[in-house]
Amino acid sequence: MNFFCCPFEYLAGKVSLRVQALDVRCETKTEDNVFVEVNVSVQYQVQRDKIYDAFYRLSNPTQQIRAYVFDIVRSVLPAMPLDEAFEAKEHVALEVKKALSAVMDEYGFVIVQALVTDIAPDTKVKNAMNEINASKRMKEAASEKAEADKVLLVKAAEADAESKYLSGVGVARQRKAIVDGLRDSIKQFSGNVHGTTPKDVIDLLLLTQYFDMLKEVGNHEYTATVFLPTEGSSGTNVRDSLLQAQAGQAMMR
């Protein structure tokens, strides 16, 4: 009996040459003993010239990548405080990519990119950080408000000082004008009326101003001013003067 054996083959598996993504979630703690969860996204691809190595030398590439990510993250972040860890996401990603590239190239894989997508501390830690930031902002706002109030007070004081200065200048000019007017009046009066002295003119002007003042005071309905003689007088004279003033006020009404 003769036998004829045909050569045959079978499909052992398939290898994708597309870029694949693996998300790794790793828990670790920072230098200040704050536990955080780190999300790392690794993009890798099988090298076309190393397909045999990628298929036969490594049975579970995703598990291998995950293990290395855990190892790198847990060796880098514990050396940093929490605030620095948030700022060092790019540094951690570069460390992951560098370490994985050196290891996975031997098995026919190339690491296209490694990204740290999130660093999430515990909820209580988040709330505490928010409260710290809120307190800091409130402190800065209070400081700015106090500085603004200080500026307003300084400007108000400067404005008040300038106002008083200008008021003083106005009063000084007013008094100078009055003196100049009196001087001119005295010269004119002395020239027109012979035999008068400057003292007579001044007395006349003062008396005129005195009567003008009495007129202004008397014109007000609720005037409560009492004029007393300058020379020494008895209580009876004061009483009579008050009665006369009341009578005069009644007659004006």
Describe the structure.
This protein has 253 residues and is of the alpha+beta class. The chain contains seven helices and three strands; from the N terminus they run ββααααβααα. Strands 1-2-3 form a three-stranded antiparallel beta sheet. β1 and β2 form a beta hairpin. The radius of gyration is 51 Å and the shape is rod-shaped.
Which tags fit this structure?
3 strands; alpha+beta; 7 helices; 253 residues; rod-shaped; three-stranded antiparallel beta sheet
SSE topology sketch:
Elements: E1 20-29, E2 35-46, H1 51-56, H2 61-76, H3 82-87, H4 89-104, E3 109-121, H5 123-192, H6 198-219, H7 235-252
Antiparallel strand pairs: 1-2, 2-3
Helix pairs in contact: 2-4, 5-6
Short description:
With 253 residues, the chain is α+β, with helices and mostly antiparallel strands. The protein is 61% helix and 14% strand.
Strand-and-helix sequence, N→C? EEHHHHEHHH
Q: How widely separated are the two ends?
A: 160 Å
Secondary structure category: alpha+beta
Shape: rod-shaped
In spatial order, strands of the major sheet run 1-2-3
Give the helix level as a range of percent. 55-70%
Mean pLDDT: 80
**Spans where pLDDT lies below 50 across 5 or more residues:** none
DSSP E strands, number: 3
